Every structure is written in C-alpha cells, then in structure tokens.
Automatic annotation (TrEMBL):
Gene Ontology BP annotations: carotenoid metabolic process
Annotated GO MF terms: oxidoreductase activity
Domain Amine oxidase stretches: 13-402
Superkingdom of source: Bacteria
Full protein name: Phytoene dehydrogenase and related protein
InterPro entries found in the cross-reference section: Amino_oxidase, CrtISO-like, FAD/NAD-bd_sf, Myxoxanthophyll_desat_CrtD
Lineage start: Bacteria, Bacillati, Cyanobacteriota, Cyanophyceae, Synechococcales
Source organism: Prochlorococcus marinus (strain MIT 9301)
C-alpha cells in the first residue's frame, strides 16, 4: 500500500500541472502514468534521427500573464525555450483566392481580415470584445460549472460588468454572431471559420459556443499568441517534471490503472494499478482523474452503480473526434518554400488537413531536413471492429491519399520522402490509453461549455476530474487552466481558501 494525500491519474499536461501545484503547496502526491514517458497527447516519439510531436504541435499561454507563464512563475521553474508563431498559421481555402496568413500583430491581422473578407469588420470587433471580457474573467480564476457554495463564490469574484453583457450570449453560437453582423451568407468567411473552429472546438460555426469560439479565434494575436517550442512539445512536460523532482512528488511510469474504489472503512480512495510484473495499491483522500471521463465507466464500476444518474451522464456524453496523423520527413530543398510552421488547407478527400513543419535547429530533424506532420479528424468508430487485413488496407489507403494531398499542396515529388508513417485511433488508444483513441475532449457547443459542462467535482467526495473535457477545454493552456481550478478546489477543501497564482 502506497499512501499519499493526493493521487493523480495520468501524466499528461493536466496531470503534471495539478500534481506540481499541489506538491509545491506541500501536499504529498503520487502521479501514476501507464506510459514510459509523460506528455500524453502533447508528448513526442523518436524515429531514426527525427523527433515527432504526437498530437499537439503549438502552445498558447507562454506570454506574460498567460496560464503557462503564471504556473511556471509559481513553480519557480524556467519556461521552455519558444518562439512566437507569426503567422500562427496559413489557411488555404483552395477556392482560387489568396491563402490567409493569421498574423500575430493585431493591425496586420485586421488589415488581412478586411482584404480576405470585405465587410466582416463588425464580426471581428464583436469577437474581440467578447474575448476581452472572457480573458479578464478567466484570469480571475472562476470555478465552472458551479457545484457548491465555494464554487459559486469564486464565480462571483471572477465576474466583471462586461461579463453581464456578454452573458446574454451564453447559449449562442458563432453563427448567431455572424447573423447579428449580417454575415450569415458569407460563404468564404464561414468556410474559413469552420476550418479554424474544428481545430479548437471540434465543432463548426453552427455548433461552437459563441463565448468559446470568440476567444479561440483571437488567441493567435498579441498580447497572446501561439508558440513553437524549440526542442519539442516534450520540453513542456520536462519543465513540469523538474518541479515535481524539486518537491519530491512521486512520478510513477509504466503502471496501468485497473480500478478505482472508495474505502469506506478508511475514508479514502484506493487505486489498483499494475506494471508488467507487479500489482500496486495506492491510497489517498483526494484523487484527480485526468483521463477522459468516459474511462470512468471501466475504472469506477462499483461506485458508479450507486450513482446511476452520473453514470448515465457519462454514458451519454457526445462522441469526441479521433485523428489520423501522418508523420513524415524530407529534405528542406524538396518542399516548396514555406512561410509558417503551420498550414491548414481544404481537401476534397478529407475536408481539412492541418500541417506542422519543423524549424531549422529546433531539434526535430537534422540540419537541412524537416519533419512534416499532417492530421485529419476522423470518426473513431470507423477504425474499430475491423479484421486485420481490412484495417491494414484502410490504413494504407489513407497513407497514399494523404501523401498525394501533401505532394500536391507543397510540390513534393513522391520519391523524396525520407520517412512516412501513419497513426490511427487504434494507435492513439495504445499510446494514450484514451478509449477508442479519442482526442481533444468534448466539442464546445453551448450545451457543454462553461456553466453547462462537466464539473471537476464528481458526486463522489474527493474524486475530481481534470483535463480537456473540463472547463475551459482542450489544448495545453486549457488543460493547465483546468489543473489550476481543481488544485484550488482541493486546497480550499483543506482550508486553504484564497490560493491563486
């Protein structure tokens, strides 16, 4: 039996961050990870001389006042070396118009908006006003959704007058904003927004919550911005691991959680886990669960039987997306000149393809070569329950089709690929232990965002949810905000009620 004050399940960015904050505050922490390394969907893997980012390839929140910056300052660890992405992305609608660079400098982006989408200024100004209100609110550390009086008190403290105005849009979508601004028939703008929103909310203009979408559409611009980590995405995890070592938190790799139960006699949570050779039991008053909440159906079987309403809610969560990811490498001279690390383009075959290209000297490829990662969304159910031969044929077909799309978009000759491989939802399930290899958490529609989302407080005292399915959503910045929120809730339950960064 291994005892601690807190158990954290999952060493992705959410688990590492919550463990680091609580350990820094003096609590003993056991952090359990089934993989042999941390990072989860923001981790990396190596092939030959190449380092590939598994899923996430860009970071928000490293700027002064950003969530990562605030957390690193609190933990007294240096931020990973990173450069601002400018443009953050170049979006090619393949409609005969010019590709759209999303500039970091506000004035350049405003000029680009008017050139690419004439007459759209009202929409972008409305998004900017909503985002400004959201940003003040988020930095005031609200707790959402509200589950008890303390949560409610934190929500009230976070509110500012502008939130009362934007609050009328609580159940609105991005399409509602377009309609307000007289742009509901602007097909090119809607096409662009659909591509971008799918990346960050897993929904389109008709289904993305207005309050969420307005913010993600503004995150590329100053004073925020998206960042390219110099070494790899793994450097974010390595920084957080350094804090855990300083505070002597226990980071345990290679142990897979089998079950979670509440010990009525000792009034604590027990986690059963096993490595290849041994079984382990961990015990703590508080347990932070950073795996997708759908995984609770397997890990929390006995307690869920006594909470049918909660079990049904988990069962009825919307189906998240899966991803097919193409990992490749080639010589820089064999790809047309690029002006951004990130591209997104419309594809007849796949609707949208998102591409990340490494920088010279960023550690991902040898000098003179680049890694190129391309990802598309897919329905996870389309990849399971296939016999081996059918699965391999389907995977090979996707590899060929994605190769052709990239060769056409970036003027690549087929013989110039130095490395190619493909990951499907089956691969992501094996890598991350996420059920069916789901990625990105829950789609941020008005019925699941903010006040209406899944609470970090479960009906079981001392059991907390954290990660990309909990407010405020996906991305390393989002899950870090979630980790801060759950850490504050745990500390408040232990009498430390005014903790903030």
């Amino acid at each position: 039996m291994r005892n601690s004050e807190v158990i954290v399940v999952g060493a992705g960015i959410a688990g590492l961050t919550s463990a680091a904050i609580l350990s820094k505050q003096g609590l003993s922490v056991n952090l359990i990870e089934s993989h042999t390394q941390s990072g989860g969907c923001a981790g990396t893997f190596k092939r030959k001389n190449y380092i590939f980012d598994v899923g996430a390839t860009q970071v928000a929140g490293l700027e002064k006042g950003g969530i990562h910056s605030r957390i690193f300052n609190f933990l007294d660890i240096p931020s990973p070396e990173a450069t601002i992405l400018d443009p953050a992305c170049i979006v090619d609608l393949n409609d005969g118009g010019k590709p759209i660079p999303i500039w970091y400098e506000k004035s350049k982006w405003i000029a680009e908006q008017e050139m690419q989408f004439p007459g759209s200024g009202k929409f972008w100004k409305l998004c900017a006003l909503i985002h400004q209100s959201n940003w003040i609110f988020a930095n005031n550390n609200p707790v959402l959704p509200v589950s008890n009086f303390w949560d409610f008190s934190q929500l009230l403290k976070a509110l500012v007058p502008s939130n009362l105005v934007t609050g009328i849009l609580l159940k609105s979508t991005i399409f509602d904003l377009l309609r307000i601004c007289g742009l509901s028939n602007n097909e090119r703008l809607i096409k662009f927004l659909n591509l971008q929103l799918k990346l960050y909310s897993q929904e389109d203009v008709h289904n993305t919550a207005a309050l969420y979408g307005s913010t993600v559409l503004q995150m590329c611009q100053q004073p925020h911005g998206l960042w390219h980590l110099k070494k790899s995405m793994q450097s974010l995890s390595e920084s957080l691991e350094s804090s855990l070592r300083k505070t002597e938190a226990n980071l345990i790799f290679g142990q897979k959680v089998n079950s979670i139960n509440f010990d009525e006699e000792n009034m604590c949570w027990k986690v059963s886990a096993n490595s290849k050779k041994k079984s382990f039991i961990y015990q703590a008053k508080d347990l932070i669960y950073t795996a997708p909440p759908q995984s609770l159906l397997n890990h929390l079987k006995d307690p869920l039987k006594r909470k049918k309403k909660y079990q049904n809610r988990i069962n009825n969560l919307p189906d998240p997306s899966g991803a097919v990811v193409f990992y490749s490498a080639l010589k820089r001279e064999h790809i047309k000149k690029t002006f951004s690390n990130h591209y997104q383009f419309v594809s007849k075959e796949f609707t949208s393809v998102f591409v990340s290209i490494s920088d010279d000297g960023d550690g991902r490829a040898p000098n003179g070569e680049v890694t190129l990662i391309a990802s598309i969304f897919t329905k996870t159910k389309n990849w399971f329950d296939l016999d081996k031969q059918t699965y391999l044929k389907k995977k090979n077909d996707f590899m060929k089709k994605l190769s052709l799309e990239l060769e056409s978009q970036f003027d690549i000759d087929p013989e110039n690929w130095l490395h190619r491989e493909l990951a499907t939802p089956l691969g992501f399930e094996k890598w991350t232990n996420r059920p069916n290899g789901i990625v990105g958490g829950l789609g941020q529609n008005p019925d699941i965002f903010g006040l209406f989302g899944l609470s970090s407080r479960t009906p079981f005292e001392g059991l907390w949810l954290c990660g990309d399915s909990i407010y405020p959503g996906e991305g390393t910045a989002g899950v870090s905000q979630s980790a801060l929120m759950v850490s504050r809730q745990i500390l408040a339950s232990r009498g430390i009620k005014n903790f903030s960064l």
